[in-house]
Every structure is written in C-alpha cells, then in structure tokens.
Amino acid sequence: MSEEEGADDPYYAFKPALLGAPWELWLRPEALEWRVGYRSGRVPYDRIRRLRLSFRPITMASYRFLTEIWSDANPRITIASTSWKSIMEQERQDAAYRAFVAELHRRIAAARAHIRFQTGSPVVIYWLGAAICVAAGFALTILTARALLAREWAAAALVGGFMGIFVWQIGTFFWRNQPGTYRPDALPAHVLPTPTNS
Question: Of 122, 5, 109, 1, whose CA–CA distance to 48 is shortest?
C-alpha cells in the first residue's frame, strides 16, 4: 500500500512503544489498512467481528483510550489515543483519535457487518477487579479509623489522603470501563476523549 493511493482517506498514526516502528492506519473505501514497519495488512469492514472501546491509563499517560478490533484471519488491532514522544513523555492525540474512531464506526455501519460493539473491560475481569478494589478501600478505611482512635493524626492524614487519591483514580477507571454494548451511530462518550481536548 502507499500513502499516495487514496491520499484523501482518513489517516492515523501512533507509537505504542518508545522503540520500534509506529502504527499507521488508513480508512480506505472498503477496508481498514495498517502498517507497522515492514508488516502490513488489510481488514475489510464486513470482516470485522468485534470492536471494543475502553479507557486504559498507564504510568506515563493518565488520559488514554483504546480501540481494539477483532476480525477474521487477522491479528487483533489496537489503536491508542496517545503516542510515545520521548523517554519521559507520551503525547495525547485526542482530536485525531476521536475523529478517526468515529469515521471507522461510520464505515463499519455502512458495510452492514454483524459486529459486536462493546465498551470497557470484559465482565469477569471488571467485577473481579472491582471486588479487589472494594476490599483494598475497606482496609484503608479501617487503617484510617484506627489511626484516629490512637490519636495518630499524621498517620491518619497520610492514609486518608492516600485513600482519597485511590478512590478518585480507581473510581474513574471503573466508571469509564463498565462492561456494555452500544450502537455504531451512538458512540459512548465515557470511552472517548472529550471533543474539546486536542
């Protein structure tokens, strides 16, 4: 494939790792095309079987979203809303990612393929993780209460502050990653970057 062929087709690129080639993707009239270094492939829209949108923060990118695509006879394709820029920085590509994903959905819908559109984490992983986080939050609450009863104000403040950060970050993760389904003409906002970000 070449960039010259279908030069007006929507294009998106990102680096999933600091070292290695970037992922490049094109939305051709009949298929999603991709290239990573010397490897490339083509996925007709009507051969896509499942698509998942999710919120996946990592250490260097706390506001990061993923689109995962499963299809017949192709590896899973993962598209991220961030790209490695340097050893200490991941660049947000919110507007470009959101536009590319929205157009991908429009073309899939036009192909009238039988696709499962899913959001968030798989159900079993989601509820197992939620149970572990509730247990951890309960333990932190007990530690804070014991520190207060012992009049250890500094310890109580430290544990309470940590618990507040924990609840805020984990709560955001679980709220955005609730398992669910959606229609391709009604993309769920909680698993996409906000339109105002760029």
Answer: 109
Q: Of 11, 23, 15, which is closest to residue 64 (Cα–Cα)?
A: 15
Q: Distance of alpha carbon 5 from its chain centroid, rounded?
A: 30
Query: pLDDT class for 124, splitting at 50, 70, 90?
Result: confident
pLDDT at residue 196, as a whole number? 62
**Looking at this protein, which amino acid is placed at residue 112?**
R
Q: Map out the domains of the chain as residue ranges.
A: 11-120+179-191, 123-174
User: Which two three-digit tokens encode residue 96?
Assistant: 């470009």
Q: Can you give the three-state secondary structure of 40-51, one letter per residue?
A: EEEEEHHHEEEE
Using CA atoms, how far apart are residues 101 and 40, in angstroms rounded to an integer?
19
Where is 87: in which H helix or E strand? Answer: none
* Measured distance CA(194)–CA(94) in Å, rounded: 7
Q: Which CATH number fits domain 11-120+179-191: 3.40.1000, 1.10.357, 3.30.1240, 2.30.29?
A: 2.30.29
State the pTM of this model: 0.79
CB 137 within 8 A of CB 196: no
pLDDT score, position 2: 46
Question: In this predicted model, what pLDDT tens digit does every residue of 69-99 receive, in sequence order?
Answer: 999 878 899 999 999 888 777 889 999 999 9
What's the CA gap between 81 and 67, in Å, rounded?
9
